[in-house]
């Protein structure tokens, strides 16, 4: 069952924006910390782990930025592929979701 969140409730939209903005700040600080680490221990696994953390942090920032952009544009909560409402339960778990579950599954095939 899809529920159109439509954001008629300004408080809910404000809380979501604040939560995403806070997470953006946390991830930005994490990215800064990871990029400032210059100590090379010579251990290839540490370099690999750091590279993976950098990539994950950058991806998280892109997802958060996308969600904030969709809120500003008024398209948040709508699937970018089929334009149906994304269930509120999905958005509560994955606030940066761009696709409904069926379209997400098609996207990853």
Map the helices and strands.
Layout: H1 10-36, H2 44-73, H3 88-93, H4 101-107
What proportion of the residues is helical, as a percent range?
55-70%
- What is the general shape? flat
Average pLDDT metric: 83
Question: What series of H and E elements makes up the topology?
Answer: HHHH
Question: How many alpha or pi helices?
Answer: 4
Q: What portion of the residues fall into strands of 2 or more residues?
A: under 5%
Give the biggest sheet: none
Count of extended strands? 0
Count of domains:
2
| Helix-strand makeup class | mainly alpha
Q: How large is the radius of gyration? A: 17 Å
How far apart the termini lie comes to: 23 Å
Uncertain regions spanning at least 5 consecutive residues: 1-7
Word description of this protein:
- The protein folds into 2 domains: 7-76; 78-109, no CATH class.
- It has helices spanning 10-36, 44-73, 88-93, 101-107.
- It is mostly helical and 109 residues long.
């Amino acid at each position: 069952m899809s529920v159109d969140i439509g954001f008629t409730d300004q408080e809910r939209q404000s809380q979501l924006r604040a939560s995403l903005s806070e997470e953006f700040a946390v991830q930005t600080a994490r990215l800064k910390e990871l990029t400032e680490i210059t100590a090379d221990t010579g251990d290839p696994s540490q370099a690999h782990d750091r590279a993976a953390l950098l990539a994950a942090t950058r991806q998280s920032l892109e997802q958060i930025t996308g969600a904030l952009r969709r809120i500003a544009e008024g398209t948040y909560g709508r699937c970018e592929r089929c334009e149906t409402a994304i269930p509120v339960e999905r958005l509560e778990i994955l606030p940066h979701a761009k696709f409904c579950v069926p379209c997400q599954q098609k996207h990853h095939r």
